[in-house]
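Please check these two lines:
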Amino acid sequence: MTFDPSIPCKSQKTEPYLCPELKRFHQDLTELGFEESRSHRIRQAVVGFSSGIRIGLSPKPLKELTRYKELAKDLFLDEASSALESLEALYLRLQDPELNMLQNLRAAYEEWLDSEETTEAAKKNLLALSIGMGIKAVELESFLVPEMEEIFKILIPSQRFISERLLDLLGGGKEVRPLLIDYFHFTYQESPLELKVIPEYAARFYPEGGTDFVSWLLAGYGHGREFSRKNLELRDALFESVGKESMEVNNRIYDQLFNEEPKKDFAPTSELVLSALFWCRRQHRHLFLDESPVHRFELIRNLYDLTFWMGLIGESRRQKAVGRNQF
């Protein structure tokens, strides 16, 4: 079955997606810097394809997902198989062993968009159709699926967040939060106590902090100290939950970055900002290679996490020092 050019373009502002979760996903990608230029639309397509594979591989059957009927119409699932077949052929023909799977897939999409066989409707609905193609790739056991699964294993957190975003939205029952705060929640999924504490502080600060990473860096230290003062038992439980080795690392980082006398109150300064940025640049160099919104999200989260933990440790040390000097 060929892609029907008579199908209207749902990506136009005048005709929103039938499925609200898909509309939200499109908005999220825009917020993360995926613009309407050709190169960004190809990146969107690759994200859509990977998202479709995530959906297809999910233990929950597709038809049990929220609003399946609307989703199926939006993603042109009846037409996606033929588009997938064309993309696979181009991928095999253009595949460069020096490039990774995502780079080769982008090259295939470049060629596919320029092909005379690709309809205007397919081009206009590129993101939605690509999600449908990813779903079909799993259903039809495409050779692209295991290659994408290997990519999933090595994605950095922000890229993994993007690839799982649509599946997460379709899971339903999610609190509506700013995208940055959703990213905070996503990154602490494997650490229940941190998940209970840090995203809540981040959510409270978001209206003030926006996406200014220096504001987040400074706020993190104050929030960590505040929590450490008000929640001694939970703070100690947090220390225990990350393990002895991680706490030793955190204490070494504290000594390197802050060099603070624990018995004194500490006001964040420009020296703290420079020290924290230097540490983050050394640990997460890729975040400083460009100013893309998705890298800014990851930078904000990492800086806030760093200084929040330094605040926890600093206040804990201060309390111990004060306790030693009391009768």
